[in-house]
Amino acid sequence: MEKKILVLNASSGISGDMTVGALLDLGADQDVLLRAIDSLQLEGAQVAISRVKRSALDACDFDVVLDSEHENHDHDMAYLHPDRFSAGDASEPDHDHHGSDCHENDHQDHSHLDHGSHDHGHDGHDHHDHNQHKHGCHDHDHDHHGHGHHHGRNLADIERILRSGDLSEGALSLALKVFRVVAEAESKVHGETIECVHFHEVGAVDSIIDIAAAAVCIDNLGITDVIVTDLSEGTGTVMCQHGLLPVPVPATAQILSSYHLSFGILQNVKGELITPTGAAILAALKAGETLPERFRIVRNGLGAGKRDYATSGILRAMLIEAADSGKHAGAAARIENREGRDEIIKLETNIDDSTGEALGAVMDLLLEEGAKDVFYVPAYMKKNRPSYVLNVICSETDKARLEEVIFRNTTTIGIREIPCGRTVLPRQEKTLETPWGMAEIKICRIGGDSVIYPEADSVKTLSRMNGIGYAEMYHLVKAYASGTVV
Predict the structure, then answer these.
(1) How many CB atoms lie within 10 A of CB 27?
(2) How far apart are CA 98 and CA 145, in angstroms?
(3) How far apart are CA 397 and CA 345, in angstroms?
(4) Average pLDDT in the 306-331 region?
(5) d(CA 340, CA 426)
(6) Which pLDDT score is estimated for 253?
(7) CA separation (Å) from 211 to 68, 114, 148, 177, 272?
């Protein structure tokens, strides 16, 4: 399969609507996106897509316009940055933020192509999902089509909303992953289980649309690899219902930490550049950070920001191809015609002076950073020293990043690189609602037959939730999936 490599330059940060705008500008089908969003039947919101100027550059602005019942009522910029506006000024600040940075829904006035012209200026619809209250772990009867209040949805509520729509399997799978990333972060920040966490702003209508829209665009463009460069965050604090919180906010910081997303701080920017939604999208995509040594730009796109910070206020997207992709065009064509063939790299190194605990930690880090597989083989080295041979299977685009993980976290001073070809079964990842909870499964095709493999972590979670042994839970999920999916 031909690789479609997406490069995101996030030097002005990243948020949900910046991402959607950049992907639309890159060529994602606007009609496909609007049909998918309409199918979710979320009331109280309209999608507006327009062209705006940011730092004198023409960019695409993706805007979710909420009615008075559903908007987040964050008009006052002082709510977010109390040090920027005087407490005695009762008037709202100027919201015509030309050249501003987009941190979701601090909107300027401009002409919207799809839904007419709107004058509004509400701020930050995905910023403060960390402003949730702690609830007991019980179900709430939320209307998942947008009726009634829109705060306090849990992960199951949001999954039902996404599954109710007409999203492609790829888009649905990615959107579910993004919300699960946020849920994992929130559960750690608030000391609750994933099932008990209740979203607030990220559970609101506009944020659900942002995440679903980003997933639809990624799927529509057929993106296979994602690289993020120059990810930047601001400084200072952000006001929430529980007081001032430092930037990056707790949910964002947890995602950046859990998924090892490296970023820099722009000291001249007072405010939040990386929103929880933006960080979660990168984490769900397992974005790399290393560009090919040489490449060609196929298409460019710019997504508009909406806040007036000392940055360019854009998210730049590029669709690239490696410059050497045509070097052996004939051989590549023959390989691609053989079903299930691709090219991989095996990284290999001998380690004789690390503890078992250290090696286990390295394996976890490598898998989190995008390794396709990691395993150790016992060996005897010179002087009959017991050792292990670390083997890492990865793609070319992930190689440099994984080598850095190995060098930084083991005692090795050299890594062997072995190019390999491999044959793989066609596969599809799917999240399935079962009688015991949501389960992630992998469906592999062998000729005309299908084989289902439940994901181990998913089975482990369901096993604990239902008080059923792991082996029994695995067979229950596999049997249910076989009767439902295949």
Answers:
(1) 16
(2) 34
(3) 10
(4) 69
(5) 6
(6) 93
(7) 22, 20, 21, 10, 19
- 198-199 and 45-54 strand pairing: unpaired
Estimate the crossing angle of helix 470-484 against helix 456-466, to 10 degrees: 110
Q: Of the ranges 128-137, 336-345, 363-372, 466-475, which one carries the lowest mean pLDDT score?
A: 128-137
Sequence letter at residue 106: D
Alpha carbon distance 14, 456 (integer Å) = 32
What's the angle, vertex CA 306, arms to CA 304 and CA 310, rounded to 5?
95
> DSSP 3-state assignment of 263?
coil
Residue with tokens 């031909």: 2
How far is it, in rounded angstroms, from Cα 154 to Cα 192? 12
Torsion (CA) 180, 183, 189, 191 in degrees, nearest 10: -110
Contact between 145 and 161 (Cβ < 8 Å): yes
**pLDDT at position 3, please?**
74
Instruction: State the Cα angle at 215 between 214 and 220, rounded to 5°.
Output: 100
Cα Rg, the chain, nearest whole Å: 23
Would you state the pLDDT for residue 406?
Answer: 94
Rounded CA-CA distance 334/329 in Å is 9
Mind listing the domains of the chain with CATH numbers? Answer: 5-320 (no CATH), 341-423 (3.30.70.1380), 427-484 (no CATH)
- Let me know if 316 is exposed, middle or buried by CB neighbors in 10 A (0-12, 13-18, 19+): buried
- Render pLDDT for 84-94 as a digit per residue (tens, 0 to 9): 433 333 333 33
| For the chain, percent of residues with pLDDT exceeding 70 | 75
Kind of pairing between the strands at 5-9 and 416-423: unpaired
- SS3 category, 308: coil
Q: Pairing mode, if any, of strands 437-446 and 427-434?
A: antiparallel
Q: How confident is the model at residue 294 (pLDDT cuts 50, 70, 90)?
A: confident
**Is the per-residue pLDDT at 356 higher than 70?**
yes
Tokens (6 digits) for 200 = 């607030």
Identify which of 417, 268, 423 has the alpha carbon closest to the alpha carbon of residue 340: 423
Backbone angles phi, psi at 234, to 5 degrees: -90, -160
Whole-number Cα distances in Å, 302 to 15, 122, 193, 315, 466: 13, 22, 38, 6, 47
Alpha carbon distance 454, 444 (integer Å)? 11
Type of residue found at 466: N
Portion of the chain with pLDDT greater than 90, in percent: 38
Six-digit token string for 222: 């057929």
Mean pLDDT of 67-86: 46
How much is the pLDDT for 413?
92
Edge-to-edge strand ranges of the sheet holding 5-9: 45-54, 57-66, 295-304, 314-322, 5-9, 225-229
d(CA 307, CA 272): 10
Q: Please name the residue ranges forming H helices in 191-258.
A: 205-221, 250-258
For the packed helices 276-285 and 250-258, what is the interaxial angle rounded to 10 degrees?
Answer: 10
